[in-house]
Amino acid sequence: MGRSEQNVIAHASRLHQAAQALIGDHTVAVEAARAALTPIQDAAVARELAAIPVARLQDVTEGRIRLGSVEKGGFTTVASVLEAPPYRLRQIPGVGEHTVNHILAAARQLASATRETVAVHIDVDHPEPATTALVTALHVLVEAGPEARRAVDRATALAERLGPLLTEAKPAGSRLRMLLTGKEKKARALAAVEAVQALVAEAEQAELPGLMAQASVDLLRGPSEEVAVWVDFELRSAEYYSLLTEISGQPPDTAAAEGYLPEGIAERVRTQRLDDTHRRVSLRGYQAFGARFVLAQRRVILGDEMGLGKTIQAIAVLAHLAAEGQSHFLVVCPASVLVNWTREIEARSALRVFVLHGPDRQEAFADWKGRGGVAVTTFNALRDFPAPGGGEVGLVVVDEAHFVKNPQTLRARAVATWAERCERSLFMTGTPMENRVGEFRSLVQMLDGGIAESLTDRDGWAGSVAFRKAVAPVYLRRNQNDVLTELPSLQHTDEWEQLSPSDEEEYREAVRAGNFMAMRRAAYMRPEKSAKLDRLREIVEEAGENGQKVVVFSYFKDVLGIVKEALAADAPLSGAPSSRPFGPLFGPLTGSVPAARRQVLVDDFAAVQGPAVLLAQIEAGGIGLNLQAASVVVLCEPQIKPTIEHQAVSRAHRMGQVRPVHVHRLLAPGGVDERMIRILAKKTQLFDAYARRSAVAEATPDAVDVSNTDLARRIVEEEQARLGLGNG
After folding, report:
1. In CATH, what number is assigned to the domain containing residue 332?
2. Measured distance CA(118)–CA(52) in Å, rounded
3. What's the rounded mean pLDDT across residues 454-471?
4. How does DSSP assign 613-630, residue by residue?
5. Which of 17, 179, 317, 630 could form a disulfide with 549 if both were Cys (CB 3.0 to 4.6 A apart)?
6. What InterPro entries does this protein's entry cite (predicted)?
7. Rounded distance, CA 31 to CA 593, Å?
8. Could you read off the pLDDT of 307-330 as tens digits, one per residue?
């Protein structure tokens, strides 16, 4: 025993203290958020109980108590019963102590059930001190990010292992103590020192001391300004609500989050480990289950409804497999979402991305084969690449898998070949398959021939429960209404669409002419080859498949005319079946439409049972009309003034909306859209945070000057320089 053992113990003790300090810092942050949540939760529960008639207590007690006298005594709601002192209830004629005890027990039971199910919604448009305090407390944890949570988890594991070892090794920290220690205890102390040294070396190799130090710094930062906190909440609301669910301790609807899978499969999925080392985003509970489902079942279809984050779940699977040592992955998708996939993988993971598209795709393919990473390609381009050998590709992801439902097409054959050669395959589609057994069978055939052969048309007719049971080993679908009950009713997605050659040509002509407005709408001017228009059709079609209404906004009347013509060509004739069931088409609603007529259009749109589409000029439809019948909003192009988009979206995202609103903003990379987004991003965020709290700004968006002329001139000049085009 010498100084080396003492140094090991001293070093390990400092590491143990750092781990405990981080755990404490995290606990303080969590408790601060929980303390801010409690009064909001209490108020929500009180509102619910105040709306529940006292007669509902009969249901809780299975009719064992009589409540007629209680109601006559003025106690008409469950809240009024709980708020009253017991003696007041005993003063009601015909109500004795025994009955009062039963009534109060039933009321408390109902209150407890209400607390477990009540959802806390944070109203960004009407912030109050209580919600501001909650968002501020959550902001600390969100800003610390998944890296801090990962560090806390590792610190907890380290502290649990290191603490007992340090206790066992304690005698070795002192020469005198070792001299006075018995032989057996001395041997245990020296063995513990060796174990401590190995554990410390393991932690240092994993760079845990630095991770813990950074996490503590992140958790101990002072509170940010309220405006900045609210802006961040709007940008990352899903992360805030994910934390809120965890902190509230409210049990989720497990069956719904697990897609009502049979218990045997669900249990296998729950026990599947999910490594987050290469992931840069936190997952919702149902998203983590979806990723585990893919890993546990290996060859599956993820059929979540639009807006539930299928892409994030796929990235979580890719990140896990990369952490396990897999090196090559492939994503196949429509050209319209190629850029989206690339950006999402780069933003939400540490994985390397290769785009296998365009004239250089063969070189990119060779580069990917040599270096490894995630290759992203299109259905058509996939046919140009040789299928891999067994075990070469860790996972093939097929987005919008319903594009390959016809097994006779070349794209379907190419996908089937790749899926067959890969041990794991993930097909993704937001289109419900329950009533399309024939199409579904062809997709399942690429994944599991046995299940595909067992499916008959009768499975669809038998209803979704029977259908899901039959396909549970390969199919997981969750709906928004089932799993987003606590989420905010507004979700934004920037849809980056790579312009087609025809779009590019139109855009170059607009840039050459120095016409800023023509540049903004160039992506629609050649509709037969328009990438944005193709993506718009896909969004509208998927919304229709899910029974959702859509509002399409554009600044330009001619763009709306093009959109109407394209959708009208897809729409069914009266009484005829449609391959694109998005319902009737209304509008365009423009500034030239009289106000009374505008309201008639909106009323007719809202009155439709099922899906429908309304086209509206953004400055006409964005003010004074309520469009809460819609749950999907499409913005054809980015807007110049910060308030314009907000007001348009607010027509749908407002009081009376009963399901989340999903906003899709169509953008093209590399040109005017990207420059507008970059230049206006900071100003838009800060202005919106202020403006949506200003009644004047809400009523008069034109009062805000963001230097439109200078902005247009600057963007035109930059684009002319980038493309080597002069004016004229």
Report:
1. 3.40.50.10810
2. 13
3. 67
4. EEEEEHHHHTSS---TT-
5. 630
6. DNA_repair_Rad51/TF_NusA_a-hlx, Helicase_ATP-bd, Helicase_C-like, P-loop_NTPase, SNF2-like_sf, SNF2/RAD54-like_C, SNF2_N
7. 54
8. 788 999 999 999 999 999 999 999
